[in-house]
Design brief:
By secondary structure, the chain is α/β, with parallel strands linked by helices. It has two domains: 131 residues, Aspartate Aminotransferase, domain 1 (Alpha-Beta Complex), CATH 3.90.1150; 224 residues, 3-Layer(aba) Sandwich (Aspartate Aminotransferase, domain 2). The chain is built from 15 helices and 15 strands. Helix 14 packs across helix 15. It is an enzyme of class 4 (lyase). It comes from Butyricimonas faecihominis. Its cofactor is pyridoxal 5'-phosphate.
């Protein structure tokens, strides 16, 4: 029904992924498969909503309407079985902004904030840049599957951690945390008085039968210590609209967060962000379902290609999202040498695993949220450099 094979030329649009290659990789002749947005055209209903807004020709101050809030509430009820009151919803320009606000609101300088590593680089930044103490719990890899080190987690939580930031689903390793895992995390945070910031931006992109579980849906008690952050940006490829949703059921947590939003004048958002959010959550089901099936096809193609053509490069099969965590360690090359070959021989732009923490040594992140032909070209470039 939708054409995910369509090649769209995104160059010369001030696009970070394509037009910032010189600053990131030092060259323009790179196939970019790095920054986490997709190369697919958005759902027709989103385009129609943006066109209708554009044609009015007036772009004044706007706010998130009650209809848009209800569209989000209906979406999470329909897709995740999570019942929310629209009075719990706050706005933020993006998830990273919301994470930084959460760190500032729920901790003081030098307080301990915990993350699971390797993880999305801004998790480190929002802690360190706000002069908090970073506490890392490294995920264990068992048979190509990342697991939480429960003994380490409890030891660190009870040693004065005030805030836990969790990536659910986890970027970059592709874990969709199970209900049992999340319940155990929630129980430990309740036990030790730890507030949870749950980044659930990839929540709608569970793959291969895995089911996303909203942390705050587990129990009223866990909801009361959880700030949930979601957005249509990854799901519907509208990251440039700068519009995300913060859900806080506990008024004792919601009031200070909202105060900080208002203090920094971050609450209004932009007109196109609001209309596309509403359209996506009202009408995006069919497009999303088909797009996820397309992602699964890309992932399975990549897995087979690597097994047959490049067995020294291992792929951690993702349970969610369009990001692959590739393990180059069996090549026997240093991380620096791998990166050199990627840039100068493969002419391929991937995210360095060390950007996600020291545990990413020998790993690189590949974005396969693009037409299959682009995936094929990227893999052939890998083959040329590493065969």
């Amino acid at each position: 029904m939708y054409n995910f094979d369509q090649i769209i030329d995104r160059r010369n649009t001030s696009c970070v992924k394509y037009d910032n290659l010189v600053n990131v990789f030092g060259s323009t002749d790179i196939l970019p498969m790095w920054v986490a947005d997709m190369d697919f055209q958005v759902a027709p209903e989103i385009l129609d909503a943006a066109r209708e807004c554009c044609e009015k020709g007036v772009f004044g101050y706007t706010f998130r309407s009650d209809k848009a809030k209800q569209a989000f509430a209906d979406w999470v009820a329909r897709r995740h079985g999570w019942q929310v009151d629209t009075r719990w919803l706050l706005s933020s320009p993006g998830i990273v902004t919301a994470l930084a606000l959460g760190v500032r609101v729920y901790t003081e300088e030098h307080d301990k904030v915990m993350i699971f590593t390797p993880v999305y680089p801004p998790f480190y930044a929002v802690v360190k840049d706000n002069n908090r103490e970073l506490v890392c719990s490294t995920l264990n890899v068992e048979n190509g599957h990342y697991q939480i080190n429960w003994e380490d987690v409890e030891k660190k939580l009870k040693n004065g951690v005030k805030l836990l930031i969790i990536s659910n689903s986890h970027n970059p390793v592709g874990r969709v945390w199970t209900k049992e895992e999340l319940t155990r995390i929630g129980a430990l945070c309740l036990q030790y008085g730890v507030t949870i910031l749950s980044d659930e931006i990839h929540s709608d992109l569970a793959l291969f039968g895995h089911k996303h579980v909203v942390m705050a849906s587990l129990s009223p008690e866990i909801a009361a210590i959880t700030v949930t952050m979601m957005a249509p940006s990854k799901t519907f490829n509208i990251a440039g609209m700068m519009n995300s949703v913060v859900v806080i059921s506990n008024p004792e947590l919601r009031r200070p967060f909202e105060k900080e939003l208002l203090c920094l004048h971050l609450d209004l958002g932009n007109i196109f962000g609001h209309v596309t959010l509403e359209a996506a959550y009202k009408h995006g089901d069919a497009w999303l379902d088909e797009m996820v099936r397309y992602l699964e096809k890309n992932i399975l193609f990549t897995d087979q290609f690597l097994r047959e053509e490049l067995p020294s490069i291992k792929m951690i099969l993702p349970e969610g999202s369009f990001l692959l965590w590739l393990d180059f360690r069996a090549t026997g090359l240093s991380h620096e040498k791998i990166q050199e070959k990627l840039l100068h021989e493969a002419k391929l732009g991937l995210n360095s695993g060390t950007d996600f923490g020291p545990e990413g040594e020998g790993f690189f992140r590949m974005n396969i949220g693009c037409p299959l032909e682009t995936v094929k070209e990227g893999l052939e470039r890998l083959k040329k450099a590493f065969k």
